[in-house]
Design brief:
Chain B: Its EC number is 2.7.13.3. The complex is a heterodimer of chains A (155) and B (767). By secondary structure, chain A is mainly beta. Chain A contains five helices and ten strands, in the order H-E-E-E-E-E-H-E-E-E-H-E-E-H-H. In chain A, strand 1 and strand 2 form a beta hairpin. Chain B is 47% helix and 19% strand. In chain B, the strands form five sheets. A six-stranded mixed β-sheet of chain B has the order 14-18-19-17-16-15. Chain B has a five-stranded mixed β-sheet with strand order 6-8-9-11-10. The chains are: A mainly beta (155), B alpha+beta (767).
């Protein structure tokens, strides 16, 4: 059972919204361990382009995913203003590089609309649904699928 | 402390008792008939029974009770612990372990098996099984033992639960002084430095000894240190003397009368069971060259002043060397002679075995131990790891900010560094444990598989006291179990086939552990048929692993069995072919930072060699720069470093480059290129070459841009949050807080042989 499925049964939940390349996304707050500033990462050999590398998180090695590049958008050029969302995905802890964290939303399941038909399979694989908040559209992200399948294999 | 905690302690103790039980039974199985071993086995079962009774574990109690009853028969010499009896007992020990585990974890036990064993045990206790034959030899020996001069103390000992060993003293009486026939004695003479300090001369004593009879002598120079570390006042030599004399032991001892406090002296009877056995020994004593001694010993005894004394000692050392040289030819004969008496005098051998066991017991009793939660130790190790990183950070910032090098700060830092290292070593030592428990578990697996396959197998273990980190031990059990199953099921032939091939029907599986250059090497060897290369090759072709006309070396064919889904078994048996293949073994060894190699000889068996790191926590590394990345190369892999000169670089074909080192050519590997950090090869002349040697053999020169220094690094798992990266063994955190990757030298070398790093990743992901 994923963290999302767990919370679906309980009704209301809190989400953290963040901005990436002018768009807004959100993830379940229960999966988020901490939010921290950008520090230079150590590059990994043979890594996909969205894998920025690894950083030291109090003694643990934390892989950083460029969320923008992961969605097939323009890769981020990390600056000190970028933030890393440290999230727990199954047994692993990963960092998600985003432009900025914008909001904490409290929503009920009824507020989550199904992902519109228009999205391609690729985008749909990340999205759990969309939210309409004050005229903005925020996409609820499935963290499990942000981290690609074969990379979790070894864990 | 609540009931559960007490129970937990009981189960922990049970584990120790079970280990004791198994090792005791195995000792008995190897022919050790020491009553103390039997007692230890009995005690182990007895204490499990006692504890189990207190906790109301009825199944365990009733089984232990039957087991204990049968063991008591052995203890009181009513049942001879022969191979058949021990087979039942070893199985019973397995069931006892199962019952204990079931009592703890709530699992179930194979009841049919335990009931069957209860029956067998009871039958043994009642002397019903034909092979038991109610201990005839013991019964025969017992009356022989009774007329021994001192029966009273023996009986007293008996009441305390000890068994008298049937031991005939006739041998000794016959060889005592009045004997006319010459007897061969083994004399071990090891002078202490005091002997020389008091002006005695070993050579004179040896000369006196030689007058007693025919003598051959072997100088034991094992203690002799290198010349540089030799202390001129110390005594390093010992002599093993084989003396055939009709004068008796007292005469020998009287030679050493004046020196007995200043030397170790051991006089034993070397002959067989009766006097004159020396005649039958295959040894041919070489006459001792007396003239040599006379020549070398000027009357220098009685030296008074210090200088003279020193001179005497020096001369003594020289004399020792001379006599050693004179007797070098005797060594072989001595070795032979030493073996023969050991075989012929059973009782003497078992007596010395008992002595050794007692010493061992005393040694283990002398070091008190405590039981600690592994979590606590892990926490401590993590903290020390952080301490090491912090210390490195501190050193780095001091070096960066310190302009003139304030000596007090530097000295303090140096001391801190030393202390940190010491703390780290000590903490690591806490986790270090002998591999014995895993090896012991394997003996059970061998027994079970041997039973299932109807093969007769002997497991020989060596170096089971080799220490290695607990996590390594824990993770070793699974691949080792699988390999042992394979060795017995696939490796060894059936007894009939073995006999047909002219081999001992009983197969041998040898499990060895030893330390080698900072790693632990575990070897699993069987004397079976070896890998059937034709079959492996055919299978690989069938599975599209290799082309039908592929030209593979024997080694390459052997290594094919590590591929996923590869099994040479014709049919899937209960033992193997459960979908777990050697590929899983290889992967779990690799996950431990280890490597595995096979060497196989048709008809003679296969050897699997695993090389594993001693600890998963720290390693000594060389910090290098490659394409602006900081990498760590394990120091154990590096043979030497060199600055390549343009004249030493040779191009080979389109892309290969070789470097000539002392007239041999070694392939150059650009680390930055192979890890995909840069698109084109760097100019070797601008970098540094690290000459590395891989486990699979073969040297490579790894090209890096620069060397930053040597450092002990704390290994951080990459897999925990990321994934296995080909070519990278793990990660670490440097002084500046950044992550650096630790190079997997063997993978890099493997990759440079033409297999790219990439496909292996997809293979691993697919499997």
């Amino acid at each position: 059972m994923t963290y999302a499925a767990k919370n679906l049964t309980t009704g209301g939940r809190e989400l953290i919204a963040f901005r990436v390349g002018g768009q807004e996304y959100c993830v379940n707050i229960m999966a988020v361990r901490e939010i921290r500033g950008w520090t230079p990462a150590t590059a990994m050999p043979h890594a996909p382009n969205y894998m920025l590398g690894v950083i030291n998180l109090r003694g643990a090695v934390l892989p950083i995913i460029d969320f923008s590049a992961r969605l097939g958008m323009k890769p981020a050029e990390p600056t000190v203003r970028h933030v890393i969302i440290v999230a727990q995905v199954k047994s692993q802890v990963v960092g998600l590089l985003v432009d900025a964290v914008s909001d904490i939303l409290t929503v009920s399941d009824a507020d989550i609309q199904p992902t519109p038909d228009i999205a391609s399979d690729f985008e749909r694989s990340f999205a759990r649904g969309v939210l309409a908040v004050e005229g903005r559209m925020i996409c609820l992200v499935e963290l499990d699928s942000v981290f690609p399948q074969e990379e979790r294999e070894a864990a | 402390m609540d009931m559960n905690e007490i129970k937990e302690i009981f189960f922990q103790e049970c584990e120790e008792q079970l280990a004791e039980l198994e090792s005791g039974l195995l000792k008995l199985n190897d022919g050790d008939r020491d009553p103390e071993t039997v007692n230890a086995v009995f005690r182990a079962v007895h204490s499990i029974k006692g504890g189990a009774g207190a906790f109301g574990l009825d199944d365990l109690v009733s089984f232990a009770h039957v087991f204990e009853t049968t063991l008591d028969c052995v203890r009181s010499n009513r049942l001879e612990p022969n191979q058949d009896v021990l087979k039942v007992m070893l199985k019973s020990a397995d069931v006892l372990a199962d019952l204990t585990n079931a009592a703890r974890d709530g699992g179930s036990v194979d009841e049919v098996r335990s009931r069957q064993l209860i029956k067998e045990l009871e039958a043994l206790a009642n002397g019903e099984l034909p092979q038991t034959a109610v201990a005839e030899p013991v019964a025969k020996q017992a009356p022989a033992a009774t007329p021994v001069p001192a029966p009273a103390p023996a009986a007293a000992v008996n009441e305390e639960g000890f068994q008298p060993v049937a031991f005939s003293f006739d041998d000794f009486e016959a060889s005592e002084p009045p004997a006319i026939e010459p007897t061969t004695f083994e004399v071990l003479f090891r002078p202490k430095s005091e002997l020389y300090a008091k002006g005695n001369d070993a050579t004179l004593l040896l000369r006196d000894l030689s007058r007693l009879g025919e003598m051959s002598i072997h100088c034991d120079m094992d203690e002799l240190p290198a010349l540089g570390s030799m202390n001129p006042e110390a005594a390093y030599f010992a002599w093993k003397i084989s003396l055939k004399t009709d004068k008796g032991e007292d005469a020998i001892r009287s030679v050493f009368e004046f020196a007995e406090w200043d030397c170790e002296l051991d006089v034993t009877l070397a002959g067989g069971d009766h006097a004159g056995a020396g005649d039958e020994l295959p040894m041919q004593p070489v006459p001792f060259d007396l003239s040599l001694l006379d020549e070398e010993v000027p009357a220098s005894t009685g030296a008074a002043d210090d200088d003279e004394q020193l001179a005497t000692q020096q001369r003594a050392v020289r004399d020792e060397a001379v006599s050693a040289a004179a007797t070098a030819s005797n060594v072989l004969q001595m070795a032979k002679a030493a073996r023969t008496p050991a075989e012929s005098t059973r009782s003497a051998a078992s007596a010395s075995a008992a002595q050794a066991a007692a010493q061992q017991a005393a040694a283990s009793a002398a070091t008190p131990t405590i039981r600690v939660d592994l979590d606590r130790v892990d926490r401590l190790i993590n903290l020390v790891g952080e301490l090491v990183i912090n210390q490195a950070m501190l050193s780095q910032s001091v070096i960066e900010n310190d302009t003139n090098g304030t000596s007090s700060i530097n000295m303090g830092l140096e001391e801190l560094q030393q202390l940190t290292r010491e703390i780290q070593d000590s903490v690591m030592a806490i986790r270090a444990q002998p591999v014995k428990p895993v090896f012991q578990r394997m003996s059970r697996i061998v027994r079970e598989i041997a039973d299932m396959t109807g093969k007769s197998v002997r497991l020989v273990t060596e170096g089971e006291n080799t220490e290695v980190d607990k996590t390594v031990i824990d993770k070793l059990a699974e691949p080792l179990t699988h390999m042992i199953r394979n060795a017995v099921d696939h490796g060894l032939e059936t007894p009939e086939k073995r006999v047909a091939a002219g081999k001992n029907p009983e197969g041998t599986v040898r499990l060895t552990a030893k330390h080698r250059s900072g790693r632990i090497v575990i070897e699993l060897a069987d004397d079976g048929a070896g890998i059937n290369r034709e079959k492996v090759r055919q299978k690989a072709i069938d599975n599209d692993l290799i082309a039908a006309d592929a030209n593979l070396s024997d080694e390459e064919i052997d290594n094919l069995i590590f591929h996923a889904g590869f099994s040479t078994a014709d049919k899937i048996s209960d033992i193997s072919g459960r979908g777990v293949g050697m590929d899983v073994v290889k992967r779990s060894i690799q996950a431990l930072g280890g490597r595995i190699n096979i060497s196989s000889k048709p008809g003679q068996g296969s050897v699997f060699t695993m090389s594993l790191p001693l600890t998963l926590a720290v390693l000594d590394g060389m910090v290098v720069t490659v394409a602006n990345q900081t990498l760590v190369v394990p120091l154990t892999a590096i043979v030497e470093t060199l600055q390549p000169e343009a004249s030493a670089i040779h191009s080979f074909g389109a892309a290969q480059r070789l470097i000539s080192i002392r007239n041999s050519f070694c392939p150059l590997v650009d680390v930055g290129r192979i890890l995909n950090f840069r698109a084109i090869q760097a100019n070797p002349v601008e970098g540094v070459a690290l000459l590395v040697e891989s486990e699979g053999g073969g040297q490579r020169a790894l090209m890096v841009d620069a060397i930053q220094g040597q450092r002990q690094v704390v290994i951080k798992s990459l897999e925990a949050n990321y994934t296995h990266v080909p070519g990278i063994a793990a990660a670490t955190i440097l002084g500046d807080g950044r992550v650096a990757l630790i190079l997997d030298v063997d993978a890099i070398v493997g990759a440079s042989r033409g297999h790219s790093l990439k496909p292996e990743m997809s293979l691993a992901a697919a499997g």
